[in-house]
Specification:
This protein has 187 residues and is an all-alpha fold. The chain has helices at 14-24, 36-40, 51-59, 63-68, 71-74, 80-84, 91-104, 113-127, 132-143, 153-158, 172-186. Helix content is 55%, strand content 0%. It is globular and about 50 Å long.
């Protein structure tokens, strides 16, 4: 993988911005900056620019602002933003593509994010759903953060936030087909 010095990327690169939007399957000019995506986002507290601002940066061809923002990396891909958009702009998909472009440019503010994604997808492949306790254990083992969640476990168990019971979805074949379809689309 070629690492590019992000500081050498031009501030305005309309071709790269168009490429991100095209891969996300959106026309960023459809967004009229209502802010509903940002208002519904559960992750804005940790973002340096709210989702509607990322779209605005793209409208203005400000590639540097998009690539250096932590927002695409903070995005939980919950799709609330996309569901709330009155213009049907798939903001969540823009965040995914912006994250890929940022990584390709050599900027990855959260280096363990790939390990989390791998653990999450492995969980879904195995059980048809994510088990938070297993996900946390796999992630912590692969990143070396062995005990980071231990203090939270008793409270999470008592509140039913995590469970030691492992269950699988009934129709795992359907989940596998969906996973294969999305993996082909990501290539």
């Amino acid at each position: 993988m070629k690492i590019v010095d992000v500081s050498k990327i031009p501030i305005s690169d309309s071709n790269a911005v168009k490429d991100i939007a095209e891969k996300a399957g959106v026309n960023v000019k459809d967004c009229y900056q209502c802010g509903k995506c940002s208002a519904g986002c559960p992750m804005t507290q940790g973002m340096d620019a709210h989702p509607h601002k990322i779209i605005r940066f793209m409208q203005l061809d400000l590639l540097d602002e998009v690539l250096k923002s932590n927002t695409p990396w903070i995005c939980a891909s919950c799709n609330v933003c996309s569901a709330r958009c009155p213009q049907n702009v798939d903001v969540a998909n823009v965040m995914r593509e912006a994250r890929k472009a940022s990584k390709a440019a050599g900027y990855q503010p959260f280096p363990d994010s790939d390990k989390f994604e791998e653990a999450f997808l492995a969980n879904v492949r195995r059980f048809g759903r994510s088990h938070e306790a297993i996900l946390a254990a796999q992630y912590n083992l692969t990143t070396g953060h062995l005990f980071q969640d231990v203090p939270n476990v008793p409270a999470m168990l008592s509140r039913g936030m995590i469970s030691m019971k492992i269950s699988k979805v009934k129709d795992q074949d359907s989940v596998r087909k969906i996973m294969k379809k999305t993996e082909k689309g990501a290539e």
